[in-house]
Write a structure and sequence with these properties.
binds adenosine-5-diphosphoribose; L-2-Hydroxyisocaproate Dehydrogenase, Chain A, domain 2; about 325 residues; Rossmann fold; alpha/beta; 11 helices; 2 domains; 14 strands
Length: about 325
Amino acid sequence: MSRKKIALIGGGQIGGVLAQLAAMRQLGDVILFDIVEDLPQGKTLDIAEASAIDKFDVSVKGTNDYKDISGSDLVIITAGLPRKPGMSRDDLLSVNAKIMKSVAEGVREYAPNAIIIIISNPLDAMVTLFKKVSGFPANRVMGQAGVLDSSRFASFIAWELGVSVKDVSAPVLGGHGDTMVPLVRYASVNGLPVMELLERKYNDAAKAREVMTAMVERTKQAGGEVVKLLKTGSAFYSPASAAIQMAEAILRDEKRVLMVCALLEGEFGVNGYYVGVPAILGANGVEKVVEVSLNAEEKALMDNSVNAVTTLVADMERLGF
Ligand code: APR
């Protein structure tokens, strides 16, 4: 079997970590693209020079030329400006839409058969735009948000309960913004309901609800919490890890059920919009959206989140994209 090829569009903070993780896990040969001259060449040279230590044989190269992404099996896109303190994801809309349009044109031309994972914000809009400009089928265009949002929620739960995070599963659905929907009812520690464990810990149902509400709120604001501390950019280690988990599921045809920003065509009562939902990821990209029942409260939160996505997409269209 020949080696897979992974193109990373955007060689900034997330792009650099993506390149290192992809190389260390030997997911395939890595090509890092950026418009800034020498930056992707410098980062990849630095990463590649650790290959004798980390023992990876894959090649890791940088480029400023779209031609070099030819033949890529998978493309992960982080091109765009990150959020600055006080700036909402939506403020980024017009500047990043312009960038995404040019990226979609480059990828369409040179990697027409690749599967695409988008990380650039505002996520739901950027994925929609990429799909529109590229004309790629829905199974090959997706966004990363839910894997990270779920990881953040799971981390907070593990820290609160004093259990291994490996045992915590805590799905987050919806758009990648303040309206995201952490699914408390489906959060578990190896199948055991988190709410019951919290109630037993505090021996007080009201206190347990209060603690859960705080974790839900922290999850929704988690990106901003990091931005505030970093001051010069947004989270980059965890978004890279999240996208690499998705990439691995696709490149190794793992059929993992992960939270993916996927195009809905009737699932969850939504038609024609990209929203974060559980989906099976394998060699064909998004192989199936997995539906689960939502109760009235969860459905209301999901509807609210979908509304935020439709507004965002409408805003982008009004800006001419
Ligand atoms: N084509 C390719 N790369 C581009 C383009 C373009 N047209 N325009 C900008 N870039 C590059 C920048 O040169 C920069 O190196 O995209 C890179 C973005 O890197 P950072 O600014 O370090 O941002 P990062 O932290 O990696 O986040 C990237 O992901 O999570 C989102 O909100 C975040 O939208 C942001 C994106």
